[in-house]
Amino acid sequence: MTKLLPSPFSSLLAVVFISLISIVHCCSPSDQTALNAFKSSLSEPNLGIFNTWSENTDCCKAWYGISCDPDSGRVTDISLRGESEDAIFQKAGRSGYMTGSIDPAVCDLTALSSLVLADWKGISGEIPPCITSLASLRVVDLAGNRITGEIPTEIGKLTKLAVLNLAENRMSGEIPPSLTSLAELKHLELTENGISGVIPSDFGSLKMLSRALLGRNELTGSIPGSISGMKRLADLDLSRNHIEGPIPEWMGKMNVLSVLNLDSNSLTGPIPGSILSSSGFGVLNLSRNALEGSIPDVFGSTTYFMSLDLSHNNLSGRIPDSLSSAKFVGHLDISHNRLCGPIPMGSPFDHLEASSFSDNQCLCGGPLMKTC
C-alpha cells in the first residue's frame, strides 16, 4: 500500500491554521496598551496584583483579573476586588489596599462588558466621563473606595448596564436624569455617599430593577409615586437621608417588595395599614422619623417579619392585640414612642427584652417589670 506524504501545500495550510489560532487568542495590542495606562495610574503595594501584568505575557492568558473574548482577543472583563477569597489574598492573609485613580485609558477598551475595581479603600479621583462610551458595559462596580465627583451625566447611554454599584465612596451631586433610562438595570447601589437632590420623579421607569439601595446620602423630597409600578423591586433602602412627607399607602401593595428601610428620615403622618398587613415584608424599618398616630391593628396569620422596627417616632395608643396573631415576628422594636397600656401576652412578646419597649409614655407589663 502506497503511503501518501503530506504535500508542501497542506503543510503550509497547517502552519497558517495554527498561526490563526494563536492570533485569535492573543490579547489585542491596543487593549494591552490601554491596560498598561490603566495600571500606571494605580498603586497596589502589598499583594503584587500587577506583577502578572508583564509586557512579555499575553494579557488574555496571564494577567490577574483580566478576561478576554476567546475569538477576538478583545478585553471584556476587568475584575479586581480588594476583598476576595482568591489564593493571592489567602497567601498574604490580608485584604487589599490600592491607591491612585481610574485612568481615562480604560475607555479605549471598547469591548469591555464588566469593570470591577471594588473594595480597595484608597482609589480616588473621579469616574472618567468617557466611560459612558463603552456600549457593551453590563457591570460597573467601584464600591468601597474614595471616589469623588458626580455620577457621569450621560450614564443613560449604557443601555446594557445591569449592575451599577458606587457604594461607600465620596461622591456628590444629584442622580442624573439619564439614569432612569437604564432599561436593563437590575441592581443599583449608591449607599454611603454625599448624593443630594430629589429622587427622580420617573425613577419607576427602571422596570427591571430588583434592588435600589440609596441609603446614607443627602437625598431630599418625597418618595416618588412612580416607584409603585416597579413590579420586580424586592429591596428598597432610602434610610439616613432627608426624605419627607407621608409613607404612601401603595408601598404595602407592592407584591415583590420584601425589604424596606426608610429609617432616619423626616417622614410624617401615620403608618399605612397596608404595610403592616402585607404578607410579603420580611424586614421593615421605619425608625427615627416623625411618624404619628396609632400602630394599625391589622396583623394576621400571614404576617411574617424577621425584623420590624418602629422605634424613635411619635406613635401613640396601645400595642395592637392582633400582633399576637402574626405568623412570625423575630425582632420587634417599638421603643422611644408615646405608647400606653399593657404589653400583650404570648408570642412574639414572650421572647423580647425590655429594650424593645423602653422609653414609652405608659407601657406596662411584660418584660418591663412595671405593673399595670
Query: How many individual helices?
Result: 4
CATH architecture: Alpha-Beta Horseshoe
Count every beta strand, where a strand is a DSSP E run of 2 or more residues: 23
Radius of gyration: 27 Å
Structural class label? alpha/beta
Give your account of this protein's structure:
- This protein has 372 residues and is α/β, with parallel strands linked by helices.
- The protein has one domain (90-364): Leucine-rich repeat, LRR (right-handed beta-alpha superhelix).
- The chain is 11% helix and 23% strand.
- It has 4 helices and 23 strands.
- The chain has helices at 8-25, 29-40, 87-92, 273-277, and strands at 42-43, 66-68, 75-81, 98-101, 114-118, 121-124, 139-141, 163-165, 187-189, 196-198, 211-213, 218-220, 235-237, 244-245, 259-261, 266-269, 283-285, 290-294, 304-309, 314-317, 328-333, 338-342, 362-364.
- It has a 12-stranded mixed beta sheet, with no helix packed on it.
- A hairpin with a 6-residue loop joins strand 2 (66-68) and strand 3 (75-81).
- The longest helix is centred in the N-terminal third of the chain and has 18 residues, at 8-25.
- The chain is elongated, with a radius of gyration of 27 Å.
- 37% of the residues are buried.
